[in-house]
Amino acid sequence: MRVLLLGGTGEARALAARLHPDIPVISSLAGRVPDPALPVGEVRIGGFGGAAGLAQWLRGNGITAVVDATHPFAATITANAAQAAARVGLPHLVLARPAWPDGDAIAVGSDTEAAEVVARRGYRRVFLTTGRSGTAAFRDSDAWFLIRAVTAPEDELLPAHREVLLSRGPYRVEGERKLLREFGIDALVTKNSGGAMTRAKLQAAAETGIPVVMVSRPALPAGVRVVNSVDGAVDWLANLR
Ligand code: NAP
């Protein structure tokens, strides 16, 4: 057995730690962030060159199973992995952490729809946490944005009125509450990432009565096998042995 574990998430690191050293695992990172948190065991960094490149890589590296534990919004690599595993005939699993319940949030299908809601509702001071690639849809907005991301978005993808806060979770409710207050935030825009690392902002927003605009997750490729926990992935791999 030799597993390719597509990572870049806390769940992927937790899974690598559970499998290592009993099951040979190569963790793969996109290489987007400087100084990434590294999983235990073997790690490779960088893209594969689309689904075809990944299929070739799987064959060339003697991989016998693929676990995709990438972020729920990393839709391209997830589609490529499903395609490549099918092409090579390998068992393939998606580990997708549970989504946050929408609750009272305004659920939207895309960053563009989120920007429309901001304009329509007249929000003026928005805490924008949709990540580096999520700012472009707000470029023409005349609201002010507090943009939190791990790496800085390019200037031309940013709205005119903004402050960029570079940081990496996990976050705590107290800190999030303080941020909302200090910056006079009147709306939170977030992806439905799920998980505990970045959930505190939702509680802080709820406590302070700040409306939340939540971008729903992209759909998973049709027919893929999915588990919602690291335990589920460990069990799936155990059954392959
Ligand atoms: P994406 O849009 O789905 O993928 C774009 C391209 O990046 C892929 O086609 C692939 O390049 C490469 N890639 C992505 N993940 C990879 C991986 N784990 N190993 C090797 N290559 C990878 O991905 P993204 O949304 O930019 O996310 C990139 C990474 O950051 C993922 O590993 C993800 O888990 C992590 N992350 C993403 C988010 C988010 O909000 N999107 C949040 C936290 C962490 P090739 O086509 O050349 O193979």
TrEMBL record:
This is Cobalt-precorrin-6A reductase. PANTHER family: COBALT-PRECORRIN-6A REDUCTASE (PTHR36925:SF1). GO terms for molecular function: precorrin-6A reductase activity. It comes from the Bacteria. The lineage of its organism: Bacteria, Bacillati, Actinomycetota, Actinomycetes, Mycobacteriales. Pathway: Cofactor biosynthesis; adenosylcobalamin biosynthesis. Keywords: Cobalamin biosynthesis, Oxidoreductase. GO terms for biological process: cobalamin biosynthetic process.
